[in-house]
Amino acid sequence: MVIGRFAPSPTGPLHFGSLVAAVASYLEVKTHQGRWLLRMEDVDKPREIKGAADAILHSLEKLGFEWDGEVLYQSQRNGLYEEAFNSLKNKQLIYPCTCTRKEIADTTNQFGIDGIIYPGTCLSHPLKPNVANAWRIKTNALEISFVDAIQGEIKQTLSQNVGDFILKRADGLFAYQLAVVVDDAAQGITHIVRGADLLDSTPRQIYLQQLLGFSTPHYAHVPVASNATGEKLSKQTLAKPIETSVANHHLHDALCFLGQKPPAAIKNATLNEMWRWAFLYWNLEAVPKTRQILADH
User: Fold this and answer.
1) Which residue, 9, 8, 26, is CA-closest to 254?
2) What is the rounded distance in angstroms from the CA atom of residue 296 to the CA atom of residue 286?
3) Quick check: 220 and 191 in contact, CB under 8 A?
4) What domains, with CATH codes, occur in the chain?
5) Between β-strands 111-112 and 115-116, what pairing exists: parallel, antiparallel or unpaired?
6) Are 40 and 71 in contact (CB under 8 A)?
């Protein structure tokens, strides 16, 4: 059975960029008679906005989404993350790090896809005393590759492109990369459809899946909706919340954004009529093969 998921972060209300990812994931799963799960990625509590999770769920309901099972909250799953973390620790695959961002910037000029690459200082130097430490995972020179259903073949050598990345922060919170891998495995996720802003993170997640003995899902990364300055629509870029009173218009716009070309005749159709059309004509191959598209929202 195809099992997919939508996993928003409750840092603000549902906006058009998130709706695009939700629509693509929902249609790809449901047109294969699969199960569509909903997960709140609230592991980073300092970034969470009070009431945002409930607001997102309310918006999804008003937009006509129907998810299977109960909503899963990452903040309630620390025990599972700790178990995976200890497994990697027992295999001596992770190590403590007390370096600050400034110290890292001052000791290297090597840059990767996410900025400065950590030079491995704490692997060969003593830790600073009386300082809370993060935990990094050792990467290697092996190439991680996968074929994305939309973006094509993706290759990455983690040691050169990313470096030893953090799995547990100095404040004790588990990093997104570990939490998402553990949750996808625990929920039996087989197909992940999400925004292309996470495309560069996928090799890291596949690496962790391999180390933890998890299966690797099929991936499809849809274009990210951006504003006129090229920034991804988000709370930080003041993306407008979805107005559920005109849910049919938002669904129509999302389908157009995803290259589905709904006929002009259904522009003002009811929400149910638009969903019926979407289920009949959904085509993942029609989604634009690019990472970013300007959105007028």
Assistant:
1) 26
2) 20
3) yes
4) 3-78+177-294 (3.40.50.620), 92-168 (3.90.800.10)
5) antiparallel
6) yes
Whether 155 and 19 have beta carbons less than 8 Å apart is answered as no
Which of 23-27's residues contact partners 24+ apart within 8 Å by CB, and which partners?
Answer: 23/251, 23/254, 23/255, 23/258, 23/278, 24/193, 24/220, 24/222, 24/258, 24/284, 24/287, 25/192, 25/193, 25/194, 26/65, 27/278, 27/279, 27/282
Query: Could you tell me the pTM of the whole model?
Result: 0.95
Pairing between β-strand 94-97 and β-strand 134-137 as defined by DSSP bridges: antiparallel
Q: Which of 35, 51, 25, 27 is nearest to 3 (CA)?
A: 35
H-state helical runs in 78-143: 78-90, 101-107, 121-124
Name the residue among 1, 3, 5, 2 with its Cα closest to residue 194: 5
Report d(CA 189, CA 65) in Å as an integer. 18
d(CA 208, CA 168): 14
What residues does 41 pair with on adjacent strands? none
Q: What is the chain's length?
A: 297
Amino acid letter, residue 152: G
Say if residue 69 is exposed, middle or buried (CB neighbours under 10 Å; 0-12, 13-18, 19+): exposed
Which tokens belong to 96?
A: 């403590």
Report how many helices (DSSP H) and strands (DSSP E) the chain contains, helices first.
10, 14
Percent of residues in the chain assigned helix, strand, coil, to nearest 5: 40, 20, 40
pLDDT in tens, 139-194: 988 899 999 999 999 999 999 999 999 999 999 999 999 999 999 999 999 999 99
CA angle 191, 193, 199 (to 5 degrees): 110
Q: Tell me: the pLDDT tens digits for 94-107?
A: 999 999 999 999 88
Q: Tell me the angle at which helices 271-281 and 16-30 cross, rounded to the nearest 10 degrees.
A: 60
